[in-house]
Amino acid sequence: MNRFVYLFIFLMPILGCRNSNTSNIESTVSNLYGKKISIPTDSFQCYKGLKEYPINQEHSEYKLVVFIDSTECSSCALENMHEWDSYVCLSDSLKNKFNIIFIISPKQGEVGNAKIKILSENFKHAIYIDAKSIFHKANPIIPANKMYHTFLLDAENKILLVGSPIHNKKIYNILISFIKG
Known about the structure:
- The chain is an alpha/beta fold.
- It is built from seven helices and seven strands.
- The chain has a seven-stranded mixed beta sheet, with helices on one face.
């Protein structure tokens, strides 16, 4: 319950502003909280390091999902994946407590380029390629705007937090309070 207090404290500045854009963001985020997300990893290809990697159904108390859909430049997003290295290290140190799931759903015709980029970058964490947009189809509640494509899930895959901790210090602080709390 204390975690929801953090959530409301975080949302208070947003609630205080009453411009249209802020109200839309507030409404979208509040509609996502508590919703269950399906992660059909068995339908994805998984890569780690320099090779295809077997799908690993890790069960953890918290999962941070980073979803890159076909509206984004997959190559550009993959070039910036190293921004997540400190979170990957945190995930590695907190086995069964916290895991990161990177899901990339490239545009049709760009799947091969995405695989090449993943292999050439030699990422140390698993990256799932969703070539058929199955993740998006299984989760129509996820808005198209990429600002809603990073979210923290509980053990039952219910959304606890929405937003990127890389781009928002408040999100980072709340994320850390959840996983270390």
